Amino acid sequence: MTSFASPTLDSLDQLLERQQALGLGRCLRADDFDAQAAGAGDLALLLTDDPARSPESWDMAVILPEVLRSFDGRLSACTAMPDVSRELARRFGVTRYPSVLFVRDGDYVGVLEGMYDWQVLGPAVGRLLETPATRAPSIGIPVTSATPSGGCH
Fold first, then answer.
1. pTM greater than 0.85
2. pLDDT over 70 for what percent of the chain?
């Protein structure tokens, strides 16, 4: 009987290094993403979490390059390790991992949050390629309560 170790951050990092050969670039810092996204046309960014908390991050890192290959170079892709993913998720209003964030020339297009089956992911990506860029949901003035109770009075 063969036993497999649970994915770790180190193993996710190693997987992402291997995925670069399949066209899934790396986003090492948030400003790396800004530089990659500016003028890149359609770009998909895989936001990951620690695979111990979100094993689906590992799955999406394997599936995404294969799905994107079917779009014949219509979009480029990159991925971010969890620390960078959290920073970019806050900026773009992403609340779940893994997620695939779509931008066009640096402007927000949409996001696919969570794990998708292969048959669902392809058509969802196709729809986002036809979606116009818009304002990211997180842009604006954050509203916070002056009272810690959280209730309305």
1. no
2. 73
